[in-house]
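Quick entry between incubations.
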Amino acid sequence: MHNGLTAVILAAGKSTRMKSDTPKVLHKICGKPVISYAIDLCLKLKIKHIILVVGCCKEKVLGYVRENYKGRDIEIALQKKLLGTADAVLSAKAKIRKSEKDLLVLYADQPLLSLGAARKILNEYNKAGVSCVLLTADLEGSQGYGRIIRDSKGRISEIREDKDLRKDEKDIKEVNAGSCIFKKEKLFSVINNIKPDNKKREYYLTEAIRLLRERGERISSVRAEDRTEVLGINCRLELVEIEKILTKRLINKFLAQGVTIKSPETTFINHGVKIGRDTVINPFVYIDSNVRIGKNCVIGPFSHIRGESVIKDNVVIGSFGELNRTCVGRNSRIKHFSYLGDAEIGNSVNIGAGTVTANFDGKNKNKTYIDDGAFIGSDTVLVAPVRVGRASITGAGCVVPKHKNVPAGKIVLGVPAKVYPVRDKFSTHNSK
Ligand code: UD1
Ligand code: CA
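Done. Structure below.
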């Protein structure tokens, strides 16, 4: 969208308050690592070259990025000593290419920043002919944030960090939200003049604003409409609070798309989930990342849909169902407590209460296939790998051993399951 624009994502912070062996940016929110929110935002903005500035945990972040963003132009820059945000940007300097003239700087610990706000920053930058555009927000409790200091004409003159505020500045509600865009050449013409003469003895990127203004450069700003966009993660409490806000955003999106979510307070939906119209999600349902659910389904109460499972249209998954890496075909019913892992379930299948696919043999995960129209009796155990043929029946309590496929149209009973003569006509087991 904007030629010559590079994103620099600052992610080197110590995250000591997380009290964790995992770097803060790899902690998950709605199933997705914190760092991915900033990266995905840049990709949505069609920014081709992204530089992540990381500290001590370079290898872990690099490993994650390599695995999840194959083929993307994402580079990692190491900030050797955490000397502050200006130093972090300087650590990325060597990786910024000659043709790249503009720098979008994002703080990795702010996953709630929306695409709309990021676009606002870029639009303002494109039209204003300025050296820098900042995102600001009006916060009632502005403590902890850098405050925007404006002159008598309302122009931004500098940003003062919380610890360095003068008495008369403490009530300023307009804060620096953290995301900003700079003309590269202007920023690098002042960045070396930034001194750590503040309470934290850090090299603050925000000091660049004052230095640019002193040179007569114009600074512009846009305000975030939603104050939650500014919130950052510094400890576990903030991690779960931000997850709550994101979950609410996701649920509101589904409600607007025609999905009924009966109890938003007890429903957990992770990122990348798709749900079709007129599906009802009952209370106490947990849906993992990238699960796909079709139209007119009923899910829950008390079910857990995991592992990128796919549920087609008109499916009922009642209470205490756990699905893991499982695909369920149209019009199938799994109405009472069941575990279905690594299973491919066809159309119009009925899964009786207590059915379990024993998918793990202690070493490998194995697949179970249940073909169209099969009727799985209550308490059946299907030891994978195994196939239950089309329109066949398993009797209550039977155990189907691995590789003992049930032929199409047959009945199996007992432990271990044995094949009985051809089943009678069997059609309408799908009671609603
Ligand atoms: C920063 C801003 C503040 C703003 C707030 C918004 C500065 C000096 N202050 O403060 O004006 O209101 O964000 O949330 O920029 N980082 C590095 N290397 C470092 C230090 C930090 O990569 O040496 C990264 C952190 O991982 C984080 C980001 O930069 O992602 C911001 O750093 P942080 O220390 O959290 O700044 P704040 O005090 O929140
Ligand atoms: Ca922060």
